Amino acid sequence: MAEYLIKNGFVFDPVLGIRGDAADIAIKDGKIVETSAVKSPKVIDAAGKTVMAGGVDIHAHVAGPKVNIGRNFRPEDKLFNCKPGHGIERMQGGFSVPTTIRTGYDYAHMGYTTVMEAAMPPLYARHTHEEMRDTPILDQGAYPVFGNNWFVLEYLKNHEIENTAAYIAWLLRATKGYAVKVVNPGGTEAWAWGLNCENIHDPVPYFDITPAQIVKGLIEANEYLGLPHSMHVHANNLGTPGNYQTTLDTFKLSEGIKPNSKFGRDQVMHHTHVQFHSYGGEGFNFESKAPEIMDYVNTHDNITIDLGCVTLDETTTMTADGPFEHHLTELNHLKWANADVELETAAGVVPFVYSANNKANAVQWCIGLELGLLAKDFMRVFLTTDHPNAGPFIRYPRIMKWLMSQEARDQQFDAFKHKDKVIEATNLAGMDRELDLYEIAQMTRAGPAKSLGLAHMYGGLAPGLDGDVAIFDFNPNEPYAPDDIEKAFGNARHLFKSGVQVISDHEIASNGNKRTLWVNAKVNENPQVMRDVKEKFLRYYTVTLNNYEVAGHHYVPNPYVIEVDATQ
Questions:
Q1: Distances from the Cα of 182 to the Cαs of 215, 345, 441, 468, 487, in angstroms?
Q2: Mean pLDDT of the region 62-72
Q3: Is the Cβ–Cβ distance between 219 and 231 less than 8 Å?
Q4: pTM given for the model
Q5: CA 26 to CA 28: how far, in whole Å?
Q6: Three-state DSSP class for 65?
Q7: Which pLDDT belongs to residue 284?
Q8: Are 133 and 510 in contact (CB under 8 A)?
Q9: Which of 87, 336, 546, 567 is 20 to 30 Å from the Cα of 280, by its Cα?
Q10: Mean pLDDT of 154-165
Q11: Cα–Cα distance measured from residue 133 to residue 138, given in angstroms and rounded to the nearest whole number
């Protein structure tokens, strides 16, 4: 592999503690190395430019059956958004639900190199891995969903943590999954009966268990196994005015549980897209409760969160929170798709338009930014849009602009039709904080990598880490307009992925040598769990056990396997 020396860039790297100093970065054999280790490198002049590690997205919906439903469901999303291939690039299309090819290219243009698929139905793991395999450049992993799984509900109802852990370990191996994901715990199973769980103590129909027991039990099982990432939860009551109390109640379930820190994380819970869970008030007169939410986050080190910022775009909502999607289609009267997955989960898909002329949407926009601006530890607070639910991931540079520039936020306020009412219901207009690029690097690189247990690979520019380096046409030491931030960080000058230059002078130069990340969790032999699995497959599933598992390089090329040994 070629050697590279990136010279004289303004480096922002929380791993090394570099806050914009001019420095050189060297790459050899796919890794970051000391500059003295390269002998005849290709030199990249980064003078006057910003240099960061490759971005890490901890939560996005980019592969799998509901994403593909969204693509088929919304041909209008591709209208005027198709691009023919040229050079080494392949044909690409889509906006809020881009094709796999555009997904890889668009993330790369933003300087991202690692993206995690946030909700994989185990039954459709093969489909998910097929799409990830077809996505160029990016390293990817996927989170199987557990919070409405019949096996999990029955084991936790009986307080069987070891059996729950054994089942999780088996399913991670069977699906080549990465982490434990929970969506509307108990509520999605209730949706099979036309019901929901409206708080953490609302019993799940026919299972005699509550969301609180599901979340707490899965945290305990996660720590029993010592998985690299915390239990990853989308709490009950997403999008419902007054739901901030449910969010706080869910946060508190993490208290008193000691993290298994073998992979370097210090948390036991990651709560995703918190913007959608930070609402006060009732009906359409809801208000921001971001200060209350962030007061808890800032004073409790045992959780991480991501923002889920609204981008004020037309988009396609999709989530394993089936009852929420039905509620959404009753609000906007647009088309709706629903999918139930036997014994495991469900999903819904509904188009949505976030408009600056809509007071509720403007309040949501404020809340997402407030969460970021109120944060005290950016190694635990990460930038996302819950792509594509609050907006497409290609808007990350725009969110950076809003977080870094009060002027940019004021410009957006001036575009709101109901500006005065929005200001009354939120806190953002009175906030003058502006984040810097070091904090952005924490939110988009070092923080997510550490939370995922991948700090030994990603998130920084220290020798030994993967050669993932992004170079942007942005000089932080010269005057700039807010739009310069969005322009620069949406179009990387150069990008290196595992030591391969995948973007050169803004153009895709290689489709890369991507990897799939998955966890091989080992536990003591558990005959009961395997008997339960075989019995339910015979009784309920429409596929055989042999046709369920993801196996071989046909689905998972070039895998990076993280070994976890919880045997006693």
A1: 8, 10, 27, 30, 35
A2: 95
A3: yes
A4: 0.97
A5: 7
A6: helix
A7: 76
A8: no
A9: 336
A10: 97
A11: 10
Checking if the pLDDT of 185 tops 80, the result is yes
- Residue type for position 231: M
CA angle centred on 59, ends 57 and 65, rounded to 5°: 120
DSSP conformation letters of 344-356: TEEEEEEEEE--T
Domain ranges of the chain: 54-451
Q: Provide mean pLDDT across the span 80-97.
A: 88
Fold of 54-451: TIM Barrel (3.20.20)
> In terms of Cα–Cα distance, which of 348, 313, 469 is closest to 61?
348
* Helix runs in 184-287, H state only: 187-191, 211-225, 244-252
- Phi and psi torsions of 373, nearest 5°: -75, -20
Half-sphere exposure at residue 92, Cβ-oriented, CA atoms within 13 angstroms: 20
How large is the greatest C-alpha to C-alpha distance in the chain, in angstroms?
68
* 285 pLDDT above the threshold of 90: no
Q: DSSP letters along 447-475, please?
A: HHHHHTT-TTTSSS-STTSB--EEEES--
Contact in structure between 240 and 279 (CB atoms under 8 Å): yes
Measured CA to CA, the distance from residue 182 to residue 189 in angstroms comes to 12
